[in-house]
Every structure is written in structure tokens, then in C-alpha cells.
Amino acid sequence: MDSHLWQPALLAVFLAVFGGNAAAAPKVNFAREVRPILSNNCFHCHGPDDKNRKGNGEKGLRLDTEEGAFEALESGFALVAGHPEKSALLDRILSHESDELMPPPKTGKKLTEHEIALLRRWVQEGAAYAGHWAYEKPTAAPVPNVTVPRWSASVVDRFLYSRLQAEGLQPSPEADAAALIRRVALDLTGLPPTTEEVAAFLSDKAPDAYSRLVDGFLAKASFGEHWARVWMDLARYADSAGYPSDPGRSIWAFRDYVIRAFNENKPFDQFTIEQIAGDLLPEPTEAQIIATAFHRNTMTNNEGGTSDEEFRNAAVIDRVNTTWSVWMGTSMACAQCHTHKFDPLTQKEYFSFYAILNQTEDADRNDEAPLHQFLLPEEKARKAELEKEAGEIEALFKNPVPAWSQGFAVWDAGFPRDLEWQSGMTGEAKSLNGGSVAVREDGSLFVGTSEKGGDTVTVHLGEIVGEVAALQLNSLPEARLPGGGAGYGANGAFIVDQIRVSIVPAGAKAKPREVKFRAVYATTTAGGFEPQTVVGLKVNVEQNARNKGWSVPNSQKPQSLTLIPEKTVKLQTGDTLRVELDQRSRKKEQLLASFALKYTLDSRAELAVSTPPQMVAILRSVLAARTAASAAQLMDYYVRNHAVEAAAERASLASKKRELEALKPNTVPVMRDLAAEKQRITKVQIRGNYLNLGDEVSAGTPAVLPPLPRGVAPDRLAMARWLVSPENPLTARVIANRFWESIFGVGIVRTSEEFGAQGEMPVHPELLDWLALELVRSGWDVKAFLKTLLSTAAYRQSSAVTPELQEKDPENRFLARGPRFRMSAEILRDQALFVSGLLSPKMFGKPVRPPKPNMGLSTAFGRANDWEISAGEDRYRRALYTEVRRNSPYPSFTTFDAPNREVCTLRRNRTNTPLQALVTLNDPVFIEAAQALARKIIKEGGASIEERVRYTFQRVLSREPSRKEAERLGRLIREMEAEFASNPARAISMATEPLGALPPGGGAPEYATWTVFANVVLNLDEVLMRR
Q1: Domain of 539?
Q2: For tag attachment on the chain, is the N or C end more exposed, with fewer CB atoms within 10 Å?
Q3: Would residue 633 count as lying in a domain?
Q4: pLDDT: is 997 or 855 the higher one?
Q5: Is the dihedral of CA 152, 155, 158, 164 positive or negative?
Q6: DSSP of 587-656, one letter per residue?
């Protein structure tokens, strides 16, 4: 196409857009005006991705860099500075031929006349390129000179006011004091102010009253809870592991770390380093180790048949994407499969960054390892107290008082040195699986194997005269068995997982009577097995639940298991004792083959078998032959275990040891690097497929950003420090913008999740840079930064919307009025509980399960979505502590746009749907809050309707009701009084379900009426919106 043909057309467009006075127009800003046009319309085919780049040059046409844009092509030059008529870029944009037109018609994109005119002006002015604003270091622009008193004190206000003037806008007046304190309280703590706080602020006329108000809310413990909730979205925190089975995960210690970090005002750079690499710091504290759970919030897949490496790789991918999103506001995910289409991020650079996070021990295992064990502060304190008290008793035992040894001689003389054990075999023995059972002359048995594996051997003991004090199972090694042991397992190993004993009466019709036991003693047992479980005395929860019974892995020496009945067993003439030995463990080959069953009538049996062998050896020695050391050892044993005079101290010590043993540590999954010799090699994954690997890469960061420091290992710690380095152009801007978004409702960069080429330009670029620099200059002081924002005249404006502001700035981007937006799901719930007096102030700890509708549904693997509601104050704790299940998130939170936390959520949507009204009107939590608020109104709000309405508004909205509001609500109350007076059953239901019975003397119609009133107030727009 002849380039001269389109010149008149373009000139017409240019004149239509800019008029005849083109020379007076400001110079085109590449970053603000040109790059967005090229990014949205051209970079996909003419951007960083060299594998898919189009164009007839050697490397295709590249428009995201100055070098590429001015490179000679086979057909000429895409851009010729100062000569639009010679620039093929404009030629193709204006072409009337579909195969020549750019962007191609099939893309559905088309430049507007305004965009075409901008491009022509830019080329005419020299086609100057500039790097993407977000990848350039922030610079301190001159602060505008503002003389308006209210807007001149703050640098932030001076930037904002200057822009308002440029846009032809005037700021709004300051909000009234009641609205301000409510706004500050909600923004800093997620809770409304109390009536006492409002009254104090309204009466405080000191010049620094507002400053002290902000400081007060910054110092509240609820500040950390509120901002931790915001961070949980970024950390994709959940109390379950995700994927179809979605099993529970104990990671609440990380949430508590974040709460404490915000309340302690931990510098944000330190907060960052601890979460990414706290374990790599020199001598890390427990809190710094727990902080690394940030990147253990990734999902794990426990479904059978899945590849652990596939999902370990998915977790690392998630960590890469989350790190870039949270700290650098850049969607890095595109570069996993190919070089980024719009930003200068190559696939190789993606996997170089991946390599940094690819060296940790976690590997999609069911056990969530590695885990850090810890005690809560109160548990640590109790442990120290118990250890101190136990130590004091131990010291007494080491230096016993003389009185404690008085009974020693009697005990020594009466010790059963040689118990008499009897066989009592009647000759009746059988194997349930058909194995042979041989009863030898001495009453011992030998059981042959069965092809079925596993067995139950039944033995009868008879002709017992007297009361049985104990039963004993003895293993008898034999040379013919494996390893010369007593069982059929390797080295003679055997497992007896259950023993049942019963008295079989002589009569044919009489039923056997079970014999119960109170103690079990074994001479040895395998690790992880508790002998008590053989008779059901102890359920093994410490180890694998299948490790039940008495297990002897190497039985070359005789071993014994002694059972002590709850009371001595007395048999009548003709009765027998039936003993069943179950051997049906998962290791079915480990059967006991050679053994004897014996009993004793000696009541001292437990004393004998419970005494350690070394003590028995001393007791069996002649008194005169005992050495001083052995005599002292025996005396110490006696005092600690048998001295009547020391019984109280012994019981106290045992109690403290039991409590100490019960103080089991909590666990949290954490990051831990592989040993140097186990470090993984990282390779590019072709098209993002972990099974299709390309070139090996070394750990590093993208070239568009400053490199990692030289001379340090490119590990997580180096990367974390790099993120918050003053040289990094992104992090401070991104974090400053995110805090701004939380306070003002929308960020200076609206696309807070995307600072790359596809994101929006900042509406106040100089202000954003100033804020970023100020955040770093302050030492990353979060509370100081938030106070800077809350201290501005812009923040303190009324949020009322005038027709002019609605027309000129409907989204309030220039802040000519105060911010106004609907509150988050969690704040709405917490606020309702708070004003009703139900909210628990309890902080920290395991997640809770507040009321929610029962759906009767289950996950794909059968886990019920419904739950048992927490009791007591746990029912009313802040939303932050509600258990987060990824496959079944809390319903009302989902309705109000809370994410399921499967991935990092940088910015929640704010929707407006009828379902939301149904929640606040009918959800059990909100109904219960209305009932509790009604009871407070009746108890504390006065006697008249007017007094009670005023009390409610002050409590819920921090202000007095208007006359019109009071009149309308008065009519509602009188209508409800009549309604419930005529329907007592409905009144009782409205007033008590689900909160419970009314206070003594309370009338159901009155409480029902005020419950409806409270529900109406809790659903006012002003209650649901942050104004």
C-alpha cells in the first residue's frame, strides 16, 4: 500500500482530536500514553516472546524495546523517528486491506482514532522510548506548592490537591467527628468504636485529639487481628490441604505469628525476610521458623495414585507466582510455559527464580514434613512450673529423710525372689486356621504354620486350685525356628496383637465370663508397640494405630508378658481358663510358634514383675554381699516406689510427670533446605511440563530487575533480602499501593495485582513514588505509614457524593470525597457480634467452628462439609479464627466475596447481590446477633421507644438517629408489638432461636419485637458500608 494515501486521512484524525493548535499540546508521554496502546494491541505478537514473535526481520518485529522497534526489517522500518509517513507501524495500523491491517481483524482488536493520533504525534516527536515505569526506581518528584491551609500540611494532600485542581474538582468538607472515629476504628481494627470511645473523642477538643485517636486504635490488639486477615488472603492461608480429599492441616501458628507481627509493628522488610527465609537467618528464633509456613500454605494432594513429584512441582510453581504477586505485583505465571507476552520476563528467568525455591525438603507427603514442634506461651510457662516442682521433689528423693527408709527391711525381706509359676495345661489347644498345635510334656506348646497367614490359638488352663493372681505368656526360642527365635518372622520375630481370657464354667449351658485386666508388664517390646494394647488397656495414638499388641523383633532369648487381672480369678471345680492369642497383625508371617502359658497364685506377682531386673538381681543377693553402691541404688528405688512414708511426694511427682507428658507439642509445617549434597538440579520445563525438561538453569532473578548481590549464595535468604532492597523498584511501590487500597478502597494503581505492562498506570505516579520512598525511609514502619494515610485531609473528607462528583469522578480516583465501600465478609460478621456484645476477645490458637447452615454434603473422598459447632466463647470468636476449608469455605464469607484460599488472592472483588441481603437478614449468626442486641437494648437502653432507638444508633452507628429515622422505626416497633402479641409461638421462636432461653421475667413479644428492630438496624446501608 502507498504510504502517501493514508496521510490526509491521518491528518484529519489528528486535527479532529487535537484541533488546529497542535503545537501547544503537551509532549506525548510514552509510559503513560503509548506503552499501554502497544501492550494491549501489539506485544502479544511483537513483544518479549521470541519464540512466537511475528515480523519479517531476523528475530521478528519487537516493539517493547527501542532497539527492536528501530531495527531494519526486510520491508523497511517500523518506526522512523520524526517521520510518521515513513513508519510502517502506522502504515499497517491504517491499512484498509485485511491481510495488512494491524492488529489483525481476527484478534478482535482495533485502535481508536484517538490512539492512532497519539501514536502519530509520538513518532512525529521522535518516538522516544522509556522503560516501563514500574521497573524503574522510584524518584522523588518536586512536591506541589499548595496554599490552602487544610491541604498544605501533608505531602500526600499536596499531591492530591494539585491533581484535583488540574481536574477541575474541589475537595469535600471534613466528615463529622462521629463518622471519623467510626471510619478510623473500622480501618485499623475491623471493629466499630465503643460508645465510650465515641463520647471521649467528641468531647476532646485538644488540637492533637485526632492524632491520639489514631494512635489508640493502632495500639489495640484487634489491629493485628484485622491486618492479619488481610495478609491471610495473600498467604493463601487455610486449615486444610486442598485438592479433592482436602484433609485438615495444623498451620494456625502461622496466623498467630502474623497477628503478633502487626501488633509489634515488625518492620515490613523483616516481616518479609522471616516469612520467606526465617529458617536461614543466623540462630533463628522459634517465631522466625514458624514464619516460613507462609510458603507451606501451598496445597498438597493425598489422593492415592497421584505423583508426589508432580504436586511438589506444583507447590514450587505456586510459591514462585505468589512471591511475585505479593511483593512485586507482577503476574509471573505466564512465563512458566513460555516467555512472557507483555513483560520482559523470559521462561529461562522464570525457572532461574524457581530454582531458588526448589531446594526445600517438603515433597507433597501426607505427613506434611518438615514440621516444627512448639509449645504455646502459656504451655511453656506451665511446663517450666511443673519441671521446677518435679525437680524439687526429685531433690528430696536424692536426699530422703530418715523416716522414709523405716520400712525398707520389711520390704526387702518380703520381696518375692522366686515366684512359683504353674502350667495348668488341660491338653486342649487348637489353631483357628488349621495349623498343628503340639502340647509338650512340660505344658509348653508349638504351633505349626498355616498357609492362610495370621492365626488365633486357643489354649485352656484347668485344675486350678486357688485364686489366680497373674497370667504369664513366655516365648521359648528354638533352633528350628528362624534365627533360633520363638516366632516365624525374620530372626524369630512375632506379634501377639490381642489376648482374650475368659472363665469357661463346667456346665454346658453356662456362658463364659470375660476376665478383665488392670496392668500388663513385658520384659521387652518393639518400638512403637504398647504391650497394654494387647488387652485393650491403651489405644496407641502416638504411633501408627495398627501397631497394636506385644511385638518382639528378635526373640533369641526367652521373653515374657505378664497380665495382672483387676481382681484375683477364682475357678470353681471343673471350670477352665480359656486363653485366646490373636495374631492377625498386618505382618501376618510374624506368628509366635513356641511358647508356654502359666499362672501364679502368689499375690506378690505384680511386685515381682514390675521391679526392674537390675533391682531384682540386687534383691536376690545376700545382704552382706551387697556393695555400698548397690545398696544405695536399691534404697533409692525403694523410696521412689514403695516407701509408705513418701507416698504423698510420690503421688505428687507422678501427677506432675503425667501432666508433663500430656503437654504434647503443637506442630506447624515449615520450610527447611535440603542438605548441600541433596540439592536439586533445576531445568526449564518445556511448555510448563515437569516431565519434559530443557536446559539446566542456575538460580537468579530476571535481567529487567537488579541482580542478586554478588558473593552470596542465591538462596531464599538472598532472594528475600533482594525483594526489600532499596534497589528493587517494585516492592515498596506494591506494598504502599496495597495499603492505600485498603484505606481508600482502590489503589493508586487500580490493578494492584498487576504492575506489569498489562496493568493500569498509577493515577498519581509522583505520589506513589513518594509513598514508596517514604515507606523505605521510615524503616518499613507499617503503623507510621498507615497513620500518614489516615492523617491526610483527603482521608478525613465526608464521603457524601454530589451529582458533580458522581459525573466527573464516579470511582473517586482523584479523592475529591472521602472513601466509601462495602465492608469485607469478616468485618460484617465481627461487627454484628461486637455491637451485640457476643464477640469474644480471646486471641490466638486453633481454628474454631462457628454456626453455619448444615448442607449434608461431603467432599469427593467422604469428608463431611458440615461440622460440630464450637462451644462456649469459641462460637463467637473473630472471623479470622474460623476454620478455613478450601473445598467447603464458610458459606456467608463466600457470599461476600471471600476467596477459598486455594491460591493467593491480591484483591477481592466487591459484588452486590440479593444473596448478601439474605445472609445478613437470615443467617443464624446474624439472627443470633440481633437477638443478643435486642436483649442489650431492653436491659440498658431505657424504658421508652425513643430512648432505646437512640441507644441502638449510638451503639451500632456511633451517632444519634434523625427525626425521620426515629419516626419510621417507631412505627415498625409498634407494628411488631401488635404482631407478636397476637402470635406468642412466633414471638418465642423469633426471640430465642438460636440464642436460647430469655432472661428471667422476660416477655417473648417484647424481645421478639426488639429482635426485629435490631435486625433492621444491622441491615442498614450505613452499617454494611465503610463511610
Answers
A1: 416-610
A2: N
A3: no
A4: 997
A5: negative
A6: -TT--B-EEEEEEE--TTHHHHHHS-HHHHHHHHS-GGG--HHHHHHHHHHHHHHT-GGGHHHHHHHHHH
State the Cα angle at 729 between 727 and 732, rounded to 5°.
100
CATH number of the domain residue 549 falls in: 2.60.120
* Dist. CA 624–CA 825, nearest whole Å: 81
**Among the three residues 131, 148, 180, which one is the final residue of a domain in this structure?**
131
DSSP assignment, residue 509?
S
Contact 487, 475 (CB under 8 A): yes
> Contact, 910 vs 991, CB < 8 A?
no
Nearest to 165 by CA among 766, 814, 800, 745: 814
Whether the pLDDT of residue 541 is over 50: the answer is no
Q: In terms of C-beta density within 10 A (0-12 exposed, 13-18 middle, 19 or more buried), how is residue 996 classed? A: exposed
Distance CA 278, CA 972 (A): 58
User: Looking at the domain assignment, is residue 49 inside a domain?
Assistant: yes
915: in domain:
no
Q: Are 1014 and 955 in contact (CB under 8 A)?
A: no
**Grid cell listed for 952:** 441502638
Most confident segment among 18-32, 411-425, 556-570: 556-570
How far from chain centre, in Å, is Cα 96?
57
Amino acid occupying residue 821: F
Surface-to-core class of residue 842, CB atoms within 10 Å of its CB (0-12 exposed, 13-18 middle, 19+ buried): middle
Strand partners, 446: 438, 594
How much is the average pLDDT of 571-577? Answer: 89
Residue 644 lies in a domain: no
Give tens-digit pLDDT for 216-258: 999 999 999 999 999 999 999 999 999 989 999 999 999 999 9
Final residue belonging to a domain, choices 104, 131, 158: 131
- 385 touches 663 (CB < 8 A): no
